[in-house]
Amino acid sequence: MATTAGVTTVKAQEDELAITAGRTLVRISANILKNPDDMKYQSIKKNSNVFQAKILPCSGAVQCVLEMGFKMKEGEKFIFDRTCFNELWRIHELLVDMLRQKNVMLDVDTVQSMPTSLVRLSTLSHKEIYQRLRSHVSHVNVYENARLQEKARSCVPQDELKDKAHNIYDSRANKDEKGGERNTYEHILLLQLMAWFKKDFFKWTDKPKCPNCPDSTVDAMGSLPPTSEEKSWGAGVVEGYRCPSCTSLVRFPRYNHPGKLLESRNGRCGEWANCFTLICRAMGYETRHVTDWSDHVWTEVYLYDRWIHCDPCENVMDKPLLYESGWNKKLTLIVAANSTQVVDVTRRYCHDDRDGMYERRNAILMERWVEDLIRSFNSTQQSRMTDDKKENIRDQMSKEQQEFVWVDKRGEASEKLSGRTSGSLKWRVRRGEINAEEPKKNNWIVNKPLTPNMRELEHGRFSLEYSVISDEYRRTIGRVQKHCWETLICKSRDVMRKEEFDWRKVYLARCEKSKRGYITWSVSIPTDYSVQQVTIMVESDSFNSGSVTWLLTSESLTDVIVPGVKNLFKERYLGARTISLKALMRNDGEDSDDSWSWQHAQLFRSGMDEENSPQLLIDITLNKC
Fold it and tell me: Is 107 assigned a catalytic role?
């Protein structure tokens, strides 16, 4: 990268002056690059101690400030010109290189690579818009490659996922009040596919691990030139890191070919959405790859005669307002594309901040250019289709435009959703994508009590086990297996299954911001049978002021259940017609209003990689009267 006059002058000064000024300017530029929408970082007061003591004494430092894109205002302070992010990043990189040449250790958070989110903040020319759209359109054609789809299908445990989907589809939990289906089989299978993709297949990478020192945290070194092998798999960017323990250089190529991602199986949102879109297409779903020009990527799948949002990083489906409402993203342009169509879908994902969205769009691009280019790409994409296919796609696009009209007219406030969950907490906070707002209120889930089947009655024993790791129930005597914790409960409210991919833990907990979490399992005893013995085993954990209370009840009896041990009751429940196991999760301490207090009471906490053993046992011995 060619240097500038300002950086050259700073570099020639005495080390103490150059290093002090360089550190200060790198920190100023890093704050803007990390927080591009936060105006508090975008001004420098001339009379401030920082400017007077650290910038002004070094020749060339003020020139660097101007080269970054700052402009003098009223002779009192420098204001950053928001059309100059490319210039800002360039000076940032040059100053970082200068400091490294002087053997200065920099904090990893002050070293910034050019994020794609900043491209949107520079005024885009017609050529730049065309190139971005063309790159997107060209890329999505790879999902139609038959050999690549076959490779993707070979990675998916299809029989297992289809069995789980069939079990859930046939369960009571999927029936509405009139006995009809709540979700189609295709919908449920997609949910299983997305959960498997996040839990078992793909891994999030904030920073790569050093192969020699896996417990060390590597330091960012900026971008490295890709090798010919990395280029062949679309890695235009290779992030470089240095291990502080063994000083090894660690490469993190950002592969852009889904075939390679089926092998590497790690990355950030770009890699996740790229690979997941291919897998969905290989499984027979009609898909689109979606690019948010403010720096995120996900998938859309066509179900129920409409395009449905699917984010594999978050394991979230049909929550299009997640980014605006949950992540606090300032959206500008969102484009969905596949081999048949290109669509501006921004209106699906933006509701409360429409005025702000259009203001940002108008500041960086010509709306007419986007419309004309999308129209042109669609014409090219569809020119090779049969008339029937072309008519089908146009009908699909027409329905989508009608959907956007409805979205435009809705008056209710958008649903408040949680902040980002993928990536480390530090990384998410830095991006400003955390929001602990309360999700929509959970209603009671109610199912009928379980009843022993003929096989269980013949053996005189009902036995129910549940493993939170696989999220499966087993009735060991009755030979019944069901997936999903909700399917065999009797009642629950404000309870969710939580997967912590950072810590590789999974458990049931109360929903965020709820005061209590309730869950009950019930077994109805046939009138011609009596209960001889009840055995209960459960596991739970509490932290800080959290608590879990377990109770075993019948029509007239209540016993406290002790977690972690076998609770045995002989002949105590002889006349019972219904046996219920209940759990109450709550937090009544000083930290009860803490954003994370919902985590302080947990049922069945287990490691994702542990042996798949049950954490719940309800065993009832029956005698025929």
Answer: no
